[in-house]
Structures are given as C-alpha cells and as structure tokens.
Amino acid sequence: MLQGSFVAIVTPMLADGSLDIPSLHHLIDFHIDAGTDGIVIVGTTGESPTVDYDEHRELIKTTVNYVAGRIPVIAGTGANATREAIELTQAAKDLGADACLLVAPYYNKPTQEGLYQHYKAVAEAVNIPQILYNVPGRTGVDLSNETTLRLAEIKNIVGIKDATGSIERATDLIIRAPKDFAIYSGDDATGMALMLIGGKGVISVTANVAPKLMHEMCMAAMSGKTAEACAINAQLFALHQKLFVEANPIPVKWVLNQMGLINTGIRLPLVPLSASNHQSLLNAMKNARISPK
C-alpha cells in the first residue's frame, strides 16, 4: 500500500507557457532528496486541464524515466469521458507509472450509478492500481461514500483521494472500507487529522514547497506521534490556507518561483498571482521557515 506524503507536483513552464522539462527534473530531485514518498504527475496542480494529450504523455514518460524507480509515480488520468480516461490510463501503464489517479468526471454531472460504471469500466480495461479522486468543489459532482465502497470491491481500485475536507466522511470510509483500501487526504488543512484516524497519507499541494516537513508530519501522524505531528502541522498551517487564496496552482507556482525553483510560466485561463496576495504568501513562507531566493 502506498503511504505518506505524495506531492501533487506542478508542471513547470517557461514564460510563454511551454513545458520546462529541465525544471521538472530539478523538482523531482528536490522531492526525492527531501523524502517525498511519491509523485503525482499531471493532476489538478499539474494543470492537467490545459495540457494536450501529447504533453500529458510526455510529462508522465519524463517523470517515470527520470525518477527511475526511486519513488512511486502516480499519473493523473481522469477525464469526463470514459473512453478518454481509459486511453490515458492505458498510456500511463504503458509508460511505466506505478498507479493512476482518476478524478470524478466533471461538468457532465453523472449519477452515482454513472460514476460507478465509469470507474468500473476503467478498472476492467486497464490492469494498474487506480485511486479514485473526489473533489466536488471543482468537478460539480460528489462521489458518495456508498459508491466508493462499491468500487472498493474491485481489485485494482486501491484507494481514494478525498478532497472534501470532511473528517466525518473520511471516518465513515475508514471504518467501513476493506482493510487494503487506502483513504488519502486531498485537503492539506485536514490531512493530519485524517491520518490520525487511519488515513494513509496526503496527496498534497503544500508538499510542493515544504516536502521535508510534509513527509515528517505524515510519518509522525501515521505512527501516532500526535504532539510531533501537531507541531509540524502548526508550522505549515498558514501555507495550507494561503496556497488556496487564489485557484490552485496559481499561489503554489508563485511560491516556487520565489524559492528559485521554477520560472513564472502558467497557462491561460490561469494568470499569475495578484500582487495584493503576495505579502500573505510571504508571511506563510516565513512561518514555515521557507526563504525566498
């Protein structure tokens, strides 16, 4: 079972919006050196809605090849069309990803039965470990716990990234899900609490800029070292909040640029962080003891 701090890694881009592969290599080294437990490539934070199919494949291939087995690579392969999700998931398997993360189909608002049939079809078509991803604030659809539990019976559906921020929902899943089905937090602000009650880690935005601390917080929380986990989480909490002061990944890309790790590139319709929010991010960085370059 995959456990720990999994970075929902940004996609570095040059000022013109083109992919910056050398910076992606640098970020991967940064994470491996800091103890990050796995990399999620081409997720929401990786600007998956605005990379095309060839770029999507290139980012997965580049990450798998450069990581070279040092830590697990999870590829974002969700789509609001089932055939497209199958195609992306098969591509990720062929390119050597260790697992896939599939966001609930967005915009077309399927029923719970539609969600079940969608995920079942992908799981049956591609034999690779698959993690469900529920983020109703972005997708406009909520994958219910009952549907999740039905899907948990499918062999290669191995977990869920729950980005609802609801500890009540996560507790219900932890109690009722099969023991080999992992619940991961997709909400940094409540991630520690989820792990203290049995969650297996965080798929994290904060880990982009504070990978060592996120890894240490996850290890402490999952091993029951509550005081240590709380102390680290308190240091990171301003980042958990302020990295969402504008739509993700706008703030986290700005912080990474301030750290000297990536260029300023981001793709429309997203635009760089508003100047009015710079100071609040600088304050959060200071609280986490992250220094601008």
Automatic annotation (TrEMBL):
It is found in: Cytoplasm. Pyruvate binds at T45, I203. The active site is at Y133 (proton donor/acceptor), K161 (schiff-base intermediate with substrate). The lineage of its organism: Bacteria, Pseudomonadati, Pseudomonadota, Betaproteobacteria, Nitrosomonadales. InterPro entries: Aldolase_TIM, DapA, DapA-like, Schiff_base-form_aldolases_AS, Schiff_base-form_aldolases_CS. Pfam families: DHDPS (PF00701). Homotetramer; dimer of dimers. HAMAP family: DapA. One of its GO terms (molecular function) is 4-hydroxy-tetrahydrodipicolinate synthase activity. It comes from the Bacteria. The record marks T44, Y107 as: Part of a proton relay during catalysis. Belongs to the DapA family. Catalyzes the condensation of (S)-aspartate-beta-semialdehyde [(S)-ASA] and pyruvate to 4-hydroxy-tetrahydrodipicolinate (HTPA). It comes from Candidatus Methylopumilus turicensis. This is 4-hydroxy-tetrahydrodipicolinate synthase. Pathway: Amino-acid biosynthesis; L-lysine biosynthesis via DAP pathway; (S)-tetrahydrodipicolinate from L-aspartate: step 3/4. Its main location: cytoplasm. GO terms for biological process: diaminopimelate biosynthetic process; lysine biosynthetic process via diaminopimelate. It catalyses: L-aspartate 4-semialdehyde + pyruvate = (2S,4S)-4-hydroxy-2,3,4,5-tetrahydrodipicolinate + H2O + H(+).
